[in-house]
Amino acid sequence: LETLTIKNVDELVSAIKNMTIRGSGAIGISGAYGMYLAAVQSRGDRVAIQTAAKKLKSSRPTAVNLVKTINEILLIVEETNTNIVDQIEEKLIEVLNRQLTFEFDLGKYGAELIDDGDTILTHCHSGALAGSGYGGRALSVLRKAKESGKDIHVYVCETRPYLQGARITAFELKKFGIPFTLITDNMSGYFMRKGDIQKVVVGSDRITSHGDLANKVGTYMHAIAAKENNIPFYTATSNHTIDSTISVGDDIEIEYRNGAEVTSIQDKRIAPEGTKAVYPSFDITPHHLVTGIITEKGVITPPYDEKLHKVVQLQV
Ligand code: RUB
Fold first, then answer.
1. DSSP assignment, residue 254?
2. Rg (Cα) of the chain, in Å, rounded?
3. Mean pLDDT in the chain?
4. Which residues line ligand 1 (CB under 6 A)?
């Protein structure tokens, strides 16, 4: 685990853009830290804090956590006349504690869906700030299942091109003593058809009111293969990932990253020079492929609209 020192909002925005900080939960929390940093450094100057908010919100477009968290803090800026810095600090602490509680609670509900002896497929890395918290969202479900005495095994997709599965999830599973096998992204269908996978649990970056979800590209393929093989497909999330302003998943903005991130692996070029490559960082899994949405308030099953709306209403 490396320590990252961030000295100002611009450095934070770069760290989010270049994926040093990534994952919807982690960038949401970082956004709150960024707002606090801007407040402290500008001594509570409204315009400076609002400018920071704009930069932070546009750093990555798909995960809604970041935008929602920053909007919460912007409310303080708009409505408070005194002690803006102290109030933002209080909100930051609230956001951190809330995230830890969410992760713990949703893990508890999610673990009830896992049976003793299950092998679970997960994609990318669904965690909080690496190494902190209860272990992130999908990971929290797996960890709770293991802690409740269930004998589980996890297939972890490596997740090209950033390899978050291999570089982060595998390390966290190892740390928590959960047996796992690393596979490449294109192997899940094979193992599902063979009967080796009983559940799929992934995170999500944004969930619409219909229950369509955006998550790391490749998630949709796993969901289709799961449906075809009668394997339950779950997403582990919190109310901050639910965007009730959008109903249809295809209306979610998908971040396109530089194709050069596909033509090389860890700075080593793997394709001929001049190769054209594209990298949509997320894809949309429509709600009819989603068996359940695991939240801090319980597991939501279809039809989603009204139930998701209630979860959003329950907390800020
Ligand atoms: C990460 C990713 C994660 C979700 C959910 O993508 O798709 O599955 O963000 O994570 P990237 P969490 O690495 O491109 O940010 O549950 O931690 O919020």
1. P
2. 19
3. 94
4. 22-25, 63, 124, 126-128, 136-137, 162, 164, 203-205, 215-216, 281
